[in-house]
Amino acid sequence: MKKQSMMPLIIFGFLVILLVGGLINAKYVRDVPSPLIDKPVPQFSLPMVEDQQKMFNSDELKGQVSLVNIWASWCVSCRAEHEILNYAAKLGVKIYGINYKDEVSDARQWLQMRGNPYVKSAHDLDGRVGIDWGVYGVPETFVIDKKGMIRYKHTGPVYRDDLDKKILPLIKELEAE
Description:
The protein has 177 residues and is of the alpha/beta class. It has two domains: 1-31; 33-176, Glutaredoxin, CATH 3.40.30.10. The protein is 40% helix and 19% strand. The protein contains five helices and seven strands. The chain has helices at 2-24, 76-90, 104-114, 128-132, 160-176; strands spanning 45-47, 55-57, 66-71, 95-100, 120-124, 140-144, 150-155.
């Protein structure tokens, strides 16, 4: 009888070990490869968050090295990375945003309250452009080269370590090309 009463505890312990192991390895989720690497940015034309009468399109990403950050005001992880994006913008990094499945009024309020690191931010209300970019969650950040090619995809929030060790060195390398 004692063995049967211990079985749920053993199963529970096994599940806890799996959960902890998954959390420890969660950082590797950001390293999911993208089939879009070394391919042109998907074609799009969307209204801007700041002014719905003005459009932002994919051709504007050519001629300079830049980041494209997919974000939303409802995204908790976006809040975690926003300070880093503001910092990167102050360093001179050109960051473009695609506001994903969000109400434009919420997106505007978010940028007013937290600062606006974006050169321009497009409003993708239905998420169709995000699908073309291969987005399966926000935030996601892409490094775009001068030719408008996607050179790197970062899944999840960008932290200072990611910026300093991966993104800024890649931007410097691409700017030198």
